[in-house]
Inverse folding.
């Protein structure tokens, strides 16, 4: 059975006050990380390259898993789908905020939704990533352990990860 998720607004860039995880029935795990557009993140046109969003989203996922105490999942959650809509340019040196939130937890898969925002809060990219759970040495997907499912669906907002 899929668990529906609700979304809340994220704090503006530059407000990296410590946040605490919340508890509740429909309070999916989510995190905000900040990054700067670095020179290698840009393409020949001078703005961020589409592949940069994939790295930022995966960095947000890594931060979320660490915050939830789920670092043991690294290596057992292959990506099965990634999509993004690119809506605005970001330039070298720009500060960006990447919000990653659990959108749906299936029996063996998890859907993340993400938004990349510019300093002025304009959405630069938005999309989703789907991962599957595959235990070590499994030949296919495997069910999420109950304690992992609970964290994904109830852990709430995690403290943001900020850059300088």
């Amino acid at each position: 059975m899929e668990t529906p998720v609700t979304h809340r607004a994220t704090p503006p860039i530059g407000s990296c006050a410590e946040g605490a995880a919340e508890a509740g029935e429909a309070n999916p795990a989510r995190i905000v990380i900040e990054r700067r557009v670095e020179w290698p993140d840009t393409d020949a046109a001078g703005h961020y390259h589409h592949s940069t969003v994939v790295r930022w989203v995966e960095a947000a996922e890594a931060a979320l898993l660490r915050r939830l105490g789920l670092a043991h999942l690294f290596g057992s959650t292959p990506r099965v789908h990634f999509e993004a809509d690119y809506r605005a340019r970001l330039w070298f040196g720009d500060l960006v905020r990447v919000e990653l939130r659990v959108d749906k937890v299936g029996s063996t898969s998890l859907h993340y939704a993400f938004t990349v925002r510019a300093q002025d809060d304009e959405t630069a990219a938005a999309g989703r990533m789907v991962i599957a759970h595959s235990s070590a040495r499994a030949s296919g997907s495997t069910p999420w352990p109950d304690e992992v499912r609970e964290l994904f669906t109830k852990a709430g907002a995690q403290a943001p990860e900020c850059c300088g």
About this structure: The first strand starts at residue 30 and ends at 36. The CA atoms of residues 73 and 135 lie 9 Å apart. The beta strands are 30-36, 79-86, 95-105, 109-117, 123-132. The mean pLDDT is 87.
